[in-house]
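HUMAN: Mind sharing a backbone?

ASSISTANT:
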Amino acid sequence: MTENELGKIIVDAGFKVHQRIGVGILESAYKACLFYELTTRGLFVEKEKEYPLIYESVRMPVAYKADIVVENKVIVELKAISALTEYHHAQILSYMRLSGIKLGYLINFHEPMYKNGIHRKINGIL
């Protein structure tokens, strides 16, 4: 399955979660629900996937944790906050760059209109 095909499934699963539990829940609850939705669709999904940072000859074993990684092809970073900042956008782009993953989604479940909380990020050409 391509990154774009996975992206459609991720957005659809997120919509279902948003529709069912609404706004105002903790990020950890959205993460658990989205993880459930994606796995029930037959996808290989990892939650809190750890990635190292390698700087020159120094390897930092757990430099960061991606909220959700789908099929080792798409990173999903979840938020449940009133407003995203440039830091949040930079965060997912950094995760993508360091992992080599080309497609990412920054999803803020706190937005009343789900579509306003979805931010698609690309690292390279898909």
